[in-house]
Sequence to fold (471 residues):
Amino acid sequence: MTPEEFRRRGKDVIDWIADYWERVEGLPVRAQVEPGWIRAHLPERAPESGEPFEAILRDLDEVILPGITHWQHPGFHAYFNSGGSAPSVLAELVTAGLGVQGMLWITSPAATELEMVVLDWLAHLLALPAHFRSDGSGGGVIQDSASSSTLVAIIAARERALGGDGNTRGLAHGPRLLAYSSTQAHSSIEKGLRAAGLGSEGLRSIPVDDAYALDPTALRAAIAADTARGDVPTIVVANVGTTSSTAIDPVGRIGEICAEFGVWLHVDAALAGTAAILPEMQWLHDGLEYADSYVMNPHKWMLTNMDCSALWVREKADMQRAFSITPEYLRTASSESGSVIDYRDWQLPLGRRFRALKLWFILRSFGAEGVRAIIREHLRLTGLFADLVEAHPEFDVVAPHPVNLVCFRHVGGDAVNRHIMETVNESGEAFFTHTVLEGKLTLRLAIGAERTEERHVRRVWDLIVAAADAR
Ligand code: PLP
Fold:
């Protein structure tokens, strides 16, 4: 493709995306295909000769689009949302155009330094403690996912607990390392423990209270008992916004326990952290002064397309101890001078994408006030939906809704709730999912898509009531 052809085709593709966004509301939210449909419509082998671009775009419409679940649809209320704002998509295009691989400062100084700057901006906007800013001993880094961010934190905590021995000698000869999180913690924590060698059995699942928040008394008792036995409590993962119900753990009280026993505190605010851009929601970050690391995902609720997970750590040195290996071919004068960050030392892979551009484009295009207005409106709509549920005699809100998720149930039991969910989801107008709370199937409705307006929230509620009435 010549630059001239690229210019032309690029405009076609931008038009395609803009048209898609304009018509997405009219498409069924969930993909309507049976398993295997897409494969059956694709050739078994790659083409030997290049095809016309029109043919590719035609198949995008005819073969790929039917297999897409529309996360940017205003009726998308499932799981947690995934961003995709226009400035973010344009930045992604520039990232691809530059084709930078930013493993070392020298491999593109702007990639590293912009990442430091935008994460300092974000730390300021989210009222994170000063120890996470890059002008001190800590700093932020962009990972591909909260799962990776948490794995990085676990490995860094492991190496701090073992003085670097885990990396050199492995875990076989050391003490038993243990991790703690609530019964409501995301599965990425157990997965991270498996990958880091602590194993699923290294996770102590701490009970929760009526609001699904970790019980600090039970946490302290567990850590004290394990310490007395000679095991090494290594990391506590506190949740600010659990996946099931957006429960908020008491981070300050958990932090005091971590400080008492010298345990790494990691805070998982993958979804809810975004809300702290609002001054009135910054209580979400109470207690973060104790945290050694903290993760939130701009790619969930902060208008950013996959992938972009922001991780901050208290000590840069913990990252280097855990992740730095320098073969000759990666040695550079700038790295040796100690005056730059090489982000390869803050993650598992060597190579890395230039993701900071997305945050830079978003924060500059919307401005902090623009982002706040969207998040504030989502919170208002969440409150509105919860009020609609509460006002209905046959439905109950069954968990606190501090951010943008409402957990609710029809009084008729699991089968009725499942029927309601499937009926609404089959309508194509909206899509939401479920969890289990108190052993009961619970409907969960998230409000975090950029295009969701009050009329969409009222419509999904009408569909829910109609499904309940028609059974
Ligand atoms: N932590 C929480 C609280 C989550 O809700 C999720 C995903 O929804 C994750 C971690 C994992 O996020 P990711 O897909 O970025 O790994």
The longest strand covers residues 232-239. The mean pLDDT is 97. Residues 80, 145-147, 186, 188, 241-243, 268, 270-271, 297, 309 surround pyridoxal-5'-phosphate (CB under 6 Å).
